[in-house]
Amino acid sequence: MHRLTIEVITAMCAWAISAVGQSVSTGRLCPQGGPYNMIELVKKLSPAARIYCPGTEEFEEASIRWSVLEEPKVNVIVVPGTVDDVAETVKFANQRKLPFLAYNGAHGAVTTLGKMDHGIEILMHQLSSVEIAKDGKTAKVGGGTMSKTVTDTLWEAGKQTGKLMITVTGACECVSLLGPGLGGGHGWLQGHYGLIADQFVSMDIVMADGSRTIIDKTSSLWWAMKGAGHNFGIVTAVTTKIYDIKHRDWAIETLVFGGDKVEAVYQAANDHFLTNKTQPVDVIHWSYWLNNLDANPNKPVIIFYVIQEGVKAVDTVYTKPFHDIGPLSAEAVGGSYTDLAEWTDISTSAPPCQKAGLANPRFPIYLELYNVTAQRKAYDLFASAARGSSTFSRSVFMFEGYSMQGVQGIDPESTAFAFRDANLLVAPLITYLPADSDLDKRAAKLGEQLRQILYEGSGRKELRAYINYSYGDETLQQWYGNEKWRQDRLQALKRKYDPEGKFSFYAPIA
Ligand SMILES: Cc1cc2nc3c(=O)[nH]c(=O)nc-3n(C[C@H](O)[C@H](O)[C@H](O)COP(=O)(O)OP(=O)(O)OC[C@H]3O[C@@H](n4cnc5c(N)ncnc54)[C@H](O)[C@@H]3O)c2cc1C
Ligand SMILES: *[C@@H]1O[C@H](CO)[C@@H](O)[C@H](O)[C@H]1NC(C)=O
Ligand SMILES: *[C@@H]1O[C@H](CO)[C@@H](O)[C@H](O)[C@H]1NC(C)=O
Ligand SMILES: CC(=O)N[C@H]1CO[C@H](CO)[C@@H](O)[C@@H]1O
């Protein structure tokens, strides 16, 4: 991709100091005059910084998001080359009273992002780095580093020393470390070590006023950064715990079932992983409902994964109950940790990672176990709405049953992430080609109905939603926990650290 240098940008922006209006018609310039005159900022940025203006290929590419529903709208993109560039950009935006928003993997899809209707995108991609500490116990990860880069860098470094290293990242390769991490962050290794946020040791942050600070567990802000972090600053680097790998091998078995097996499959999942027996730390179960036109043109299938660490093939103790139900197909594969994303169809090249101009709202709910009656009701509604070639046929219902020991081993009051006791992260993802607000409403209604069915089946008083998957109409209690002390503490911290609400686009506290 052709990248503009700061010199070129300075030259291009020269119109602002010379004759107004000159060469604006080329469409290659940033918004003319007024608060978007970037010259004052350009002077302060490092040579590695980039500024992309509307009408350029760079701008288009750098502003594209995974979900086009209620997207933030930006007038100019700053790509910081250094941490100071981030700080200068925030100060500049504040002086000009312009909203700003950090972009990382751009897979954040909560509809509150749409409240940003103009302003500066701060694209974090150049702050991508992984530096392993000499003692091999932590790594300093740049604020714009993708999950896959973290995993691959640790893996490669380990190969050289003969000791393979890992840390908890999102399972999906195309999200950043911090996008999920600031909201808690689920991943394959959470059964051992806890959430992504639980690995954090210290953070470099640019605060709402553009000042730079380093915080750790001694800061009053620390608690909030682990679960509600998007509300408080731009993290330019995080020091995170890393571990020597215990087992190199991982294995998966993929079982595909027809919709007639909903009750049997989720009863078995309850019996073997959730109620009668606890899912062991080295086992993960996941399922998707989605259309597989080869398997069944009329109804979504159930794709059920049983994943196990430390083996070349998944132990039949975990798979036999599902084989007994009568899958349409079953496939067993062995490999290593780095194969997991590919196996579960969330690698960088897989469909869920593509930015394809689709609307992708999700409607998440945390559950303790499956209510088989509710699963059936939800399946029937999902199947009728997403069948065959219908508008919502690309939708996926996701059921993520990670192991929980590491997450539940940490004091629930110690982080803003509030839902450590939930075993299952569940969400319908309603995917469609956007058309009009009527269609958006239909999609939202379907998503809400599906979630409502599971909520009614949960027998709980309150609905609990993972903010990083959330739609945007959830309440603060549904995002950050029902306990009053949590809400009070978050509000007090927001008043203290971001009183003007500069960081209030992603699941905002205020
Ligand atoms: C295909 C797919 C797979 C997913 N897989 C997982 C998964 O395995 N585990 C999981 O827990 N979640 C997962 N998620 C949900 C994910 O946590 C959220 O979508 C997350 O917001 C994505 O982060 P991002 O960097 O891609 O998005 P972005 O939209 O770039 O960032 C999300 C929000 O975080 C803020 N932000 C990003 N970087 C920083 C920073 N350095 N400092 C401060 N704020 C920052 C942004 O301003 C934005 O508001 C997945 C989502 C998708 C679409
Ligand atoms: C699980 O426990 C329930 C209730 O005790 C029992 O009815 C059921 O048979 C058990 N299932 C298995 C597979 O052991
Ligand atoms: C399961 O869901 C059904 C349907 O919503 C509900 O009637 C039932 O009470 C739920 N069961 C439990 C144990 O909560
Ligand atoms: C914080 C937030 O976005 N709250 C919203 C929750 O949903 C209700 C109902 O849609 C809105 O009124 C709130 O603004």
Tag the structure with descriptive keywords.
binds flavin-adenine dinucleotide, Vanillyl-alcohol Oxidase, Chain A, domain 3, 29% helix, alpha+beta, 19% strand, five-stranded antiparallel β-sheet, single chain, binds 2-acetamido-2-deoxy-beta-D-glucopyranose, Uridine Diphospho-n-acetylenolpyruvylglucosamine Reductase, domain 3, 16 helices, disordered N terminus, 510 residues
Describe the 3D structure.
This protein is globular. Strand 5 (130-132) and strand 6 form a beta hairpin. Mean pLDDT is 91; it is low at 1-28. The two termini are 39 Å apart. The strands form four sheets. A seven-stranded antiparallel beta sheet has the order 15-12-14-13-17-18-16. The protein has a five-stranded antiparallel beta sheet with strand order 5-6-10-8-9. The chain is 29% helix and 19% strand. It is built from 16 helices and 18 strands. It has helices spanning 6-12, 39-44, 57-63, 83-95, 147-161, 178-181, 190-193, 222-228, 262-274, 316-323, 340-343, 372-386, 405-408, 437-458, 476-480, 484-497, and strands spanning 50-52, 76-79, 100-103, 120-123, 130-132, 138-142, 165-166, 200-206, 212-216, 234-241, 243-244, 249-257, 283-290, 301-309, 329-336, 365-367, 396-401, 424-429. It has three domains: 6-123, Uridine Diphospho-n-acetylenolpyruvylglucosamine Reductase, domain 3; 130-244, Uridine Diphospho-n-acetylenolpyruvylglucosamine Reductase, domain 3 (2-Layer Sandwich), CATH 3.30.465.10; 249-480, Vanillyl-alcohol Oxidase, Chain A, domain 3 (3-Layer(aba) Sandwich), CATH 3.40.462. The protein has 510 residues and is α+β, with helices and mostly antiparallel strands. The structure holds flavin-adenine dinucleotide (FAD) and 2-acetamido-2-deoxy-beta-D-glucopyranose (3 copies). One 2-acetamido-2-deoxy-beta-D-glucopyranose (NAG) is lined by residues 112, 473-476, 508. Keywords: FAD, Flavoprotein, Oxidoreductase, Signal. Residues 69-245 form the FAD-binding PCMH-type domain. Belongs to the oxygen-dependent FAD-linked oxidoreductase family. Residues 1-21 form the signal peptide.
